[in-house]
């Protein structure tokens, strides 16, 4: 593979491309690294780079130079389908990044569970979601798409929500057309607002983005497939695209045929799939199948919270039985310290060490 480096004017990104698609993996993956890039005065800066390896090459996003939204748009403009797990706190987001994903989602279901211990039935508030989101975006360098629920009110509330998510550091926001209180996707009792109000929410989100001078990615979701009909969900999706949505998402499509019908509308607007693990209404397809249908983004909303619940239950059973969790069921203490950044902290701490602090350490302080 003989890559050629091209500096993207809009995104200040670097693309390494190969003349042969066989030189790159069939599925994209991502990783983070540091490289030295010459500046205008011929000096070099070392910056953090997030890269996405796709079927056609490697796309790099300079995480410290570009906004999270620009990094996400770079992903949307790259070939292939892009899986994204959903996190629920700073630690789970760090694990997603360490695993090599080039972006992730937040899950309202998972945040409601982890933060409140309550079902995703409208209990969690805008303020709680923004606060949790800020902790998440500050913990990682990859772009994060935030679950904005139904915007927490009317069109004016939607504007406030979008501006709050921008300030919190989100790269994208998912906005849905449910009534308040909303219901979790793939559960009973979902109702949607009238067509005009649903479209106005997306227009308000676009206005909020423009007023903020931001380029946050607006993902327009409709729950009308289960609340009304497939035809209604397709109509709303087209209207959302016309209103300025960047990505379209119909939740709880019930068959592969419905998924294909969705991906055929508004062909220039990327589509998002939701692979609800463990028993949702939408068929679980692998990334290649989803790419063939026409999807660009794929969310895995409850994998991390689900396995966390199971692991904690198993550990509690062991402790209650007078045992500690068995080897292999949890990382070692050293591994946990590495994940959490103790080594990095100790190295950086040396830069600010004084003779007094060194003496305190030597004495075991």
From TrEMBL:
GO terms for molecular function: isocitrate lyase activity. Coiled coil: none annotated. Keywords: Pyruvate. SUPFAM superfamilies: Phosphoenolpyruvate/pyruvate domain (SSF51621). It catalyses: D-threo-isocitrate = glyoxylate + succinate. It holds the Pfam family PEP_mutase. It comes from the Eukaryota. CDD domains: ICL_PEPM. PANTHER family: PHOSPHOENOLPYRUVATE CARBOXYLASE, PHOSPHOENOLPYRUVATE CARBOXYLASE FAMILY PROTEIN. This is Phosphoenolpyruvate carboxylase family protein isoform 1.
């Amino acid at each position: 593979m003989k890559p050629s480096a091209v500096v993207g004017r809009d995104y200040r990104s670097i693309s390494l491309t190969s003349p042969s698609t066989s030189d790159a993996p069939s599925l994209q993956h991502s990783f983070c690294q540091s490289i030295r890039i010459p500046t205008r005065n011929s000096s070099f800066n070392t910056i953090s780079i997030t890269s996405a390896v796709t079927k056609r090459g490697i796309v790099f996003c300079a995480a410290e130079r570009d906004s999270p939204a620009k990094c996400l748009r770079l992903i949307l403009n790259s070939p292939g389908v892009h899986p994204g797990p959903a996190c629920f706190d700073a630690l789970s987001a760090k694990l997603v990044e360490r695993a090599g994903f080039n972006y992730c989602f937040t899950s309202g279901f998972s945040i409601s569970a982890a933060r409140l211990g309550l079902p995703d039935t409208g209990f969690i508030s805008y303020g709680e979601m923004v606060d949790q989101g800020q902790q998440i975006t500050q913990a990682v360098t990859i772009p994060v798409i935030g679950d904005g629920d139904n915007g927490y009110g009317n069109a004016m509330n939607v504007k406030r929500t979008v501006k709050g998510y921008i300030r919190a550091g989100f790269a994208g926001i998912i906005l849905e057309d449910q009534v308040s209180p909303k219901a979790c996707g793939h559960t009973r009792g979902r109702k949607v607002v009238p067509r005009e109000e649903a479209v106005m929410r997306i227009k308000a989100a676009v206005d909020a983005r423009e007023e903020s001078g931001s380029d946050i990615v607006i993902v327009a979701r409709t729950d009308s497939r289960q609340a009304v009909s497939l035809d209604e969900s397709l109509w709303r999706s087209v209207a959302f695209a016309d209103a300025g949505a960047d990505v379209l998402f119909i939740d709880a499509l019930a068959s592969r045929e419905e998924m294909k019908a969705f991906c055929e509308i508004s062909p220039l607007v990327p589509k998002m799939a939701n692979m609800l693990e463990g028993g949702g209404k939408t068929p679980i397809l692998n990334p290649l199948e989803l790419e063939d249908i026409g999807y660009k983004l794929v969310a895995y909303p409850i994998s991390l919270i689900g396995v966390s619940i199971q692991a904690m239950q198993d550990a509690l059973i062991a402790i209650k039985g007078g045992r500690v969790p068995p080897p292999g069921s949890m990382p070692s203490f050293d591994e946990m310290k590495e994940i959490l950044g103790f080594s990095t902290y100790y190295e950086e701490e040396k830069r600010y060490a004084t003779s007094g602090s060194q003496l305190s350490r030597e004495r075991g302080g």
